[in-house]
Design a protein that fits this description.
about 190 residues, 6-stranded mixed sheet, 6 helices, 6 strands, globular
């Protein structure tokens, strides 16, 4: 009788274990959705090519997407557009316009597709090494989410620094000017 009870409890445990499917690991889209509400100005989201280095600053987090780079850029920009608190400030590598097709097959088509995707956004340009150094520095104090894609073309990373959506740089300048010309309030 004990053997039968043991077998039945074993079978019942097996059925219960298989009835609840294991939770799937979070996807990069879920990671962006979960992280974006926590991010603010001075945080970064990078959508990078497959050879982008794994950075070790404490605030830098890298997620492998195994996805198309343009798909990831489009999705991230859409998520940012849907937020109430941040807007994108986009930078790309200064080297990108100079990479020849013969050294990086597909670069011309990529340049055309990324230009179409980023149409309407101001895009800053900076040398790749400087941007990586800026990211490392930012990662000492602020969160940086790096989404690594399967793109294998050099100098194609899209660096998105987040800025405040509801407070512009002009508003900040006016505030600082006003503060500089006015004595602090008495307590």
């Amino acid at each position: 009788m004990r053997k039968l009870a043991f077998v039945l409890s074993f079978l019942l445990a097996a059925v219960i274990a298989h009835a609840a499917p294991p939770s799937a690991p979070p996807t990069w889209k879920a990671k962006v959705a979960a992280t974006l509400p926590l991010l603010g100005h001075r945080n970064w989201i990078l959508v990078v090519d497959s050879a982008y280095p794994l950075q070790t600053s404490p605030g830098v987090e890298t997620v492998e997407t195994n996805a198309d780079q343009l798909e990831v850029v489009r999705s991230v920009l859409s998520a940012i557009a849907g937020s109430i608190h941040v807007r994108p400030v986009i930078s790309m590598d200064a080297e990108l316009p100079f990479v020849p097709e013969e050294d990086a097959p597909g670069i011309s088509a990529y340049r055309a597709r990324i230009a179409d995707l980023l149409h309407g956004f101001p895009v800053e340009s900076a040398p790749h090494d400087r941007v990586i150094a800026d990211i490392a520095e930012a990662g000492k104090q602020f969160h940086v989410l790096i989404l690594k894609t399967k793109l294998a073309i050099p100098y194609t990373s899209v660096f998105i620094r987040l800025d405040c959506k509801y407070w512009s740089a002009d508003a900040e300048r006016r505030l600082r000017t006003k503060m500089a010309g006015t004595p602090p309030p008495a307590h």
